[in-house]
Amino acid sequence: MKIDPKTFTKDYLLHLCIQCGTCTGGCPVKYRSPLNMRRLVRETYFTDPFPSLSKRAEIWACTTCSTCSLRCPSGVKNVELLMAIRNYLANKGEVPSTIRDALENTLMQGNPWGRFRDRRADWAKALGVKIFGEATSETLFYVGCAPSYDPRVQRVATALVKIFQNAGVDFAILGKKESCCGNEIRRMGEQALFKKLAKDNTILFKKLGIKKIITTSPHCYNAFQNEYPDLNLPVQHYTQVLVHLIETGHLHFSKELGTSVTYHDPCFLGKQNKVFEEPRKILASIPQCEFMEMERSRERSLCCEGGGGRMWAEGGTEGKRNAEIRIREAVSLGAKTLATACPFCLLTFEDSVKTSGLADQIAVKDIAELVDETTK
Amino acid sequence: MNIIVCVKRIPKTAEADIFIEKDNKDIKKDNLVFALNDWDGYAVREAVLLKEKFEGEVIVLTVGPDESKEVLTRCLAMGADRAIRIEEPIPNDGRLIAETLAKVIQTGPFDLILTGVQAEDDGWGQVGVALAQILGIPHASIVTHIHIEGGKAKVRRELEGGLEELLEIKLPAVLTIQTGINEPKYVSLAAILEAEDKETKEMTLEEIGFSPREPLDATIDQVSFPPTGKRAEILKGTPDEVVGQLTEIIKRKKGS
Amino acid sequence: MSDIFILVEHRQGKIRDITYEIFGLAESLANQQGTSFTAVLLGHDVKSFADDLSRRAPKVLVIEDENLEHFNSVLYQKTLSSLISKYQPSLLLMGHSAFGMDLAPSLSVEKDFPLVTDCIGLTFEEGKLKATRSIYGGKVNASVSLRESKGYIATLRPGIFPPKMHGEIKGRIVMEASPLEGGVDVKKFIEYIEAPITGEDITQAEILVSIGQGIGGPEHIPMFEELAIRLGGTISCSRPVVDRNWLPKERQVGISGKTVKPKIYLAIGISGAFQHVTAMQGSDTIIAINKDPRAPIFSVADYGIVDDFQNVIPILKEKISDMK
Hints:
The complex is a heterotrimer of chains A (376), B (256) and C (324). With 376 residues, chain A is α/β, with parallel strands linked by helices. Chain A has helices at residues 8-12, 22-26, 37-46, 67-71, 78-91, 97-109, 145-149, 151-166, 183-187, 191-207, 218-227, 238-247, 277-285, 322-333, 343-355, 367-375; strands spanning 139-142, 212-215, 235-237, 259-263, 289-292, 337-340, 363-366. Chain A folds into 3 domains: 5-91, Fumarate Reductase Iron-sulfur Protein, Chain B, domain 2; 97-243, 3-Layer(aba) Sandwich (Rossmann fold); 253-375, Rossmann fold. Chain A has 16 helices and 7 strands. Chain B is 29% helix and 29% strand. Chain B contains 7 helices and 13 strands. Chain B has helices at 38-54, 69-77, 94-105, 127-135, 189-195, 205-208, 239-255; strands at 2-6, 9-11, 34-36, 57-64, 82-87, 112-116, 139-149, 152-158, 163-170, 173-177, 200-204, 218-224, 233-234. In chain B, the strands form 2 sheets. A 9-stranded mixed beta sheet of chain B has the order 9-8-7-10-6-1-4-5-11, sandwiched between helices. A two-stranded antiparallel ribbon of chain B has the order 2-3. In chain B, strand 4 (57-64), helix 2 and strand 5 form a beta-alpha-beta unit. Chain C has 2 domains: 4-176, Rossmann fold (3-Layer(aba) Sandwich); 202-323, 3-Layer(aba) Sandwich (Rossmann fold), CATH 3.40.50.1220. Chains in contact: A-B, A-C, B-C. Strand 12 (218-224) of chain B pairs antiparallel with strand 9 of chain C, so a sheet runs across the interface.
């Protein structure tokens, strides 16, 4: 279980690196931090890198968007290497203070913000949602930490509940028994805590007889789909569910949207899990929704910098944020709404819209909200 | 340099909804999470930093029930060498805690004792300084900096108004540690799991040869919610509207 | 019943406010018990203090000794111990301050007087001392009974009891001989250390934009600094922000930091622990922005906004620049 830097070359295939620089070329934080993936791979391969790497703030700048790994022509596991370095540092206690808080909070309260566990389902109080324990269902709507606690993202969770109810989907939520999925925890370097969360969650899901999971967040989707070793349950991101509901006629649009929309592919939904079509299909079915595609889309979507623990990291980057660059791209395209399908993208964009003073030119919405607005 | 750190397991209440037990003697704790008292965490970290400088051993000590073991394990993961737990419900009486701790501490040699300034839960701020008196050694409370040199410690104490005082204190001594004295390290779950193998000695009051005298100095008759005083006028509306009102208020009050 | 003793707290040539706060409580307790109260003044060259105190207390006990010039718990304890033996007070009161916290617990053990600390209420019932304390971070109050004893010690939370600022009585000043035979070498005062002020002095600001741990991380600080500048004020903070090195100590508002009384105090992401509130409640107008509607800061604020600061501050920043 203990991590050994000596095996990094073998574990992450560092010897395959041809130093082409494709990883660094595609890195979304290359202009915002000294993080240089090509060099990091080389240094780790050639030298005993520790502790020389441990003090570098750029280790925490990576968003784990995985553009580098996906583009690497040799199959080097760059992001896994970076997470292993973080794991090595975390086990030595050398993590930035805000990351430390997020990890400790998750161990204590089951969410990185340290909000009170008992209040996890407060957002759903007036919605008449079934909660496992009091009721039962084969389908778990796994809400996630940000949608449970952040007032902005609570609106997305609420929209989804209304849509599901509208379409006659039988589902239940875990309420205060829901704990963090661990996706970001693993990416912040806490492998042991991730394993514990995965194990505890898997046992809980099985005990409750859950047959199928729907997630709000692509990050939770990624964890359940790809990283929970013993889960073996079908997992869907909500966009996949909505497409099905629309195509099977369970969900009817009753209003026109009447605006132009562009879509930002979240890294953990798009490039990492290849869910590109479903969000676009949903937008295409909304009446009077003028869809516009940004130049950088699908695999080329520019990371918003909300992943990989960046929601809790401080510093390590400078200059204009990607989220702001992205918003300006959407504005110059002429779109009145920037839609996405991820709580972290939503939060980073909302933040940037306000700080860049573009709030009167463009609105940031989750696809779930657009569907809720037009199906009521 | 052998350092003893006295620690406490406390319930975290800052974010929690609080309910009062039927007998009105305490708050309900079954919905709360527990942790190492924040001040004690700084004390353990300080002890480990001193050990790195001067070598020796860091022993963590607590009075508490079985569940208190988890905070000792955390301290061991932070770098303490061994732990001692006195099996006893945590008393509400600081004097009794200090006497119990003293009974254990007196059995071995030590150079320095650290405690937190106070506990997050009841905030008595009594144990460390009382302990020093029982042991007959000097103390300094609310310590923000320690410099050890030849059997003495130069310590900074936090006073009010941003002022500090520099003291010289002869060792062995008890220092009660203020938050912010050092940069806490992250304690990974892997480190905690590993620390479960370190030695934790468990003893009863009988085994340490201590019987608390009756009655206790202090007992809690009842707890109650504080009377609600005045409440702020909450500005309502969309963020734009709220800020509009706020700007008006600022304009008005700024001029006055 | 015998007298109630008040330990006078002074530092750098000034009596500290907590002393006057204790006077008010001591007087009412003494009236309740049909007894009197005595101010105990230990120090060096403190005659002028004694005159001032004698206008508020019926009796002032003074011990002059050059070794008592600066507070030292060991020397104070020795001195108080001998005074307690001589006068047998029923209760000794002092502040729950750096002064009282360093002294009360050890004196309590030495004299075997039950101690209650950080009291927000204090009364005698059938000869036994009862206290009210605020616990669990201010979420509940506890009523505490102390065992029967011939003497008690209590430390009082600063900023709770109304100070007795004016006195017209003519109390007696009684000089006592010092029981000390020189200083001690187990604990020596060396010097005071002032937190260096490198930026603006927050006690002089008319408007303070004050931030707490609730802002999440230091990356937002430039935004608040800019807001402060646009408002014509400066930035301050609560203790956790200093503990985490997001801002220097000189910016801290609180008992262990600075006490401030600006025209406008804008508290953002500050929950409102008493250590903080005590030091800012004298502000003319207090505005709090906090996500948590139950945060205690809303009990001291005049105006409140229950929202994430990120929804409010960027808009406010824009509106303020329009204002100028």
